[in-house]
Design goal:
22 helices, Hydantoin permease, mainly alpha, single chain
Length: 516
């Protein structure tokens, strides 16, 4: 066993024990459905802020987005991290956090589908929202499992990938099923600290590497970079050092909008606002979360932008997804300190992904146990029964994600690329307009949800038939941005030509904003 493997196992054991302990401690606060799903609406600023940030950034951001965009765009890719911090975090908290907390409390809504059902008095919207969450979020979690398993397999080449995925699945199930949202929030706090320390250390290590030579060396090195012969995607130094991405400016803008505004409609993100305890916590949480997202987001893309220098311009075996893992091994693979830091970074990526996974699993499980089953049965389900069902469905979704991840099914990976745009494209219009305007009608909200779904689905069908599904997958960022815009426009336009059946009920709901 190598030193890197030994240190990683020790770090993984410590981390696993910490997560299990937090899950067991949190069990007492998760015996009710309200406590299990939203922590009794009593989660503080730090835990909520870190829960929001760690759910935002998974290993997909580091290994996928930062590796790909840092390699192709260079320094300009850092704007994605800045956009995520300012638009996806700061503005989102300022505009949505307090209104979401107050309205969902008035409606007694614990999930996004439940919010739609009660805000618009529509069981159909509740069912449709639950189905969309189930279809498009579970495969995403499966892909994250697979990515993490592959990353650990790079350090432990003799261990099958499925073994690591099983370990990750078991660890996720233990603290999620035991402690619910409370355990998730406080483990996110621990995970967030690990992520901050790991990213800062990694930035220092990468910038100090001989091939980079600090910020000035990075700019000079990329400025004089010449693609090696045979590079399938040749680029120039001017492109890699362009502050606005050069010829990739449009691509950069689309990804900033998708990954920033997309969070405004994702149930696993806005669900954090349901649970925060008061206005004071929201004000503190806004600052904490923004700083966290700025450090993690900009740090990830800064690291990605050094990849061409560290790897000598040669794309590693395994393609673009292998850029960051190869960079880590090259920068941290030698020396005791580097190997210890490598173990910390692996736990960082594990933390980032597990925080996303538990949020997705909790959102998906509740969409079935709380929203779908009681609505279809048309009978009131006892809280104790819903509590048991939710825990069982959490286990079921963890198991399904693991099984799907172990199968080499390309559709899962492709579906993941659509999930962000599809879910946010469907929900963003009805969700945001529902918080701000009394004039939004049930028909307008349903039209917004369906229009977002049809925008992505229709474009995917057309491109797949005329070209290929892989070509449609490549266009998924543009589809997602267009779907969000369409949803935001359709909801008020259709509402202008329709009426609420019971306007007094809507007026009463909006009385919640008069409360402290």
């Amino acid at each position: 066993m190598t030193d890197a493997q030994s240190y990683t196992i020790v770090a993984l054991c410590i981390y696993a024990i910490a997560m299990a302990v937090i899950g067991c401690i949190s069990y007492g606060r998760s015996k009710t459905l309200d406590g299990f799903l939203i922590g009794g609406r009593n989660i503080g600023a730090w835990a909520t802020a870190f829960a929001y940030g760690t759910t935002y950034f998974s290993a997909v951001v580091f290994v996928g987005y930062a590796g790909q965009h840092g390699w192709n765009i260079g320094i300009g890719s850092i704007w994605i991290g800045i956009g995520n911090a300012v638009l996806g975090c700061l503005i989102s908290w300022i505009l949505l956090a307090n209104r979401t907390r107050k309205m969902t409390k008035r409606l007694e809504a614990k999930t996004m589908p439940e919010y739609f059902g009660k805000r618009y008095d529509s069981k159909g919207m509740k069912i449709l929202a639950a189905v969309i969450i189930f279809i498009f979020l579970v495969p995403y979690s499966a892909a994250v499992y697979k990515g993490l398993g592959s990353l650990f397999s790079a350090v432990f080449p003799g261990v099958e990938t499925w073994v690591w995925m099983l370990i990750i699945a078991c660890l996720t199930a233990v603290y999620l099923v035991a402690g619910g949202y409370v355990a998730t929030a406080y483990t996110n706090l621990v995970q967030g600290v690990v992520m901050l320390v790991g990213v800062v250390c990694l930035i220092v290590a990468v910038l100090r590497h001989d091939s980079v030579g600090g910020i000035s060396g990075l700019i000079d090195g990329l400025g004089s970079f010449v693609s090696p012969a045979g590079d399938p995607n040749p680029t120039t130094g001017d492109q890699l050092t362009s502050i606005f991405g050069g010829s990739a400016f449009k691509f950069l803008c689309v990804n900033i909008m998708l990954t920033s505004f997309g969070t405004w409609g994702l149930p696993q993100m806005v669900g954090k606002f349901y649970a925060i305890k008061d206005t004071k916590a929201i004000k503190r949480g806004t600052i904490i979360s923004t700083i966290f997202c700025f450090v993690i987001g900009c740090g990830a893309y800064l690291i990605g932008s050094t990849s061409r220098l560290v790897l000598g311009g040669e794309l590693p075996e395994g393609g673009i997804d292998a850029v960051i893992p190869t960079l880590l091994m090259k920068v941290l693979g030698d020396g005791t300190f580097g190997i210890i830091l490598l173990a910390v970074i692996l736990i960082l990526l594990l933390s980032a992904s597990m925080s996303t996974l538990v949020s997705v699993v909790l959102t998906s499980a509740s969409s079935v146990s709380v929203d779908l089953i009681p609505t279809i049965r048309k009978k009131e389900t006892k809280p104790e029964t819903q509590m048991i069902l939710t825990r069982l469905f959490c286990l079921a979704f963890v198991l399904c994600s693991f099984i799907f991840a172990t199968q080499n099914i390309p559709i899962i990976v492709n579906l993941m690329s659509f999930s962000w745009g599809v879910v946010s494209g469907c929900f963003i219009g009805p969700y945001i307009w529902g918080l701000f305007s009394k004039k939004i009608t049930k028909i307008g909200a349903i039209a917004g949800m369906i229009s977002g779904l049809l925008t992505v689905g229709g474009a995917t069908l057309v491109i797949s038939l005329t070209s290929s599904f892989s070509a449609a997958a490549a266009k998924s960022p543009e589809m997602g941005v267009i779907a969000m815009a369409v949803s935001m426009v359709v909801v008020p336009v259709v509402s202008a030509f329709t009426k609420n059946k019971d306007q007094s009920r809507v007026d009463e709901i909006f009385e919640c904003y008069k409360d402290n």
